[in-house]
Amino acid sequence: MGARVIVVTSGKGGVGKTTSTANIAVALAKRGKKVVAVDGDIGLRNLDMVMGLERRIVYNYIDVIEKNCRIAQALVHDKRLKDHLYLLPAAQTRTKDAVKPEQMKELCDQLRPDFDFVIMDCPAGIEGGFRNASAGADEALVVTTPEIPAVRDADRIIGMLESMGKSPIRLIINRFRPVMVQNNDMLSQDDILDILSINLIGVVPEDDSVIKASNSGEPLALDQNTPAGEAYSNIAARILGEDIPLLPLDAPSEGIFSGLRKMFGF
Ligand SMILES: Nc1ncnc2c1ncn2[C@@H]1O[C@H](COP(=O)(O)OP(=O)(O)OP(=O)(O)O)[C@@H](O)[C@H]1O
Ligand SMILES: [Mg+2]
């Protein structure tokens, strides 16, 4: 069969692609899948830091493409999830034009036989970096925050992914703040879905622990005890086809959970 290759993309920068890639990869690995997270952000790599693996990098996939090493030598094993989680790092000192889409596709194809999932972190923008990172992917996860500029860029990216034949293309709404939605200060989940018309795979709340986790290199999904960690764990379950209902805090604004949300103030 081979791996499902999923690109995590957004258009707009800083909306949570790298955070989502790391946490979804961890959550899938925790569920027993063999996963490799690939840093598609050449030159501005930071998936290694968010995963806490930066000190263990020796080679990167440009070395693989340029035949300086074998792919197995470039893979960094995450010992916290023994035999289940790996990182394939990008080069830090090269630019996005160091590779071509066909080479990235070939790289993904080389990974397929050995993994259940290849999760590719995409750089911001709609240029070459996006083209490279998405070239080898079957499916896409589009990350947006509940802000008009992010949603507009997500719309643009969805059109491009559709024209590239990616399927399914599913949406993650990140940094969601129910109180702001209730006060009509933020787009609701329904507003965003009306604009984008794709399936929602999860809503990740604004959560200070995400920032602490990025700084310490301990992805939240390693230990599900945070709202964002739980949201990522549920997204991983939905990727695996499990029918997991949305959490109270990510339920539609007029849904059965709205009373609960009001009661708890989130
Ligand atoms: N749910 C969240 N709650 C709080 N902070 C978050 C959340 N998601 C992401 N962040 C923070 O937002 C910042 C940007 O996140 P991240 O690096 O994942 O975005 P990105 O889309 O990969 O950015 P870039 O386009 O630069 O690659 C980080 O500081 C991260 O810790
Ligand atoms: Mg990033």
Short key terms for the protein model shown above:
266 residues, 12 helices, eight-stranded mixed beta sheet, Rossmann fold, single chain, 8 strands, binds adenosine-5'-triphosphate, alpha/beta, globular, disordered C terminus, binds magnesium ion
Summarize this structure briefly:
This protein has one domain (4-264): Rossmann fold (3-Layer(aba) Sandwich), CATH 3.40.50.300.
Percent helix:
25-40%
Please, what is the CATH homologous superfamily?
A: P-loop containing nucleotide triphosphate hydrolases
CATH class: Alpha Beta
Give a short account of the largest sheet: 8 strands, mixed
How many domain units? 1
Strand percentage lies at: 15-25%
CATH topology: Rossmann fold
As residue ranges, the low-confidence spans are 250-266
Distance between the termini: 42 Å
Q: What CATH architecture do you see?
A: 3-Layer(aba) Sandwich
Please trace the helix and strand order, writing H or E for each element.
EHEHHHEEHEHEHEHHEHHH
Helix and strand composition category? alpha/beta
Walk me through the topology.
Layout (H helix, E strand, L loop, with lengths): L3 E6 L7 H14 L4 E5 L7 H4 L10 H5 L5 H4 L1 E2 L7 E4 L12 H11 L5 E5 L6 H8 L3 E6 L3 H16 L5 E8 L1 H5 L6 H8 L2 E7 L2 H9 L10 H13 L18 H7 L2
Helix pairs in contact: 1-11, 5-6
Bound molecules: adenosine-5'-triphosphate and magnesium ion (MG).
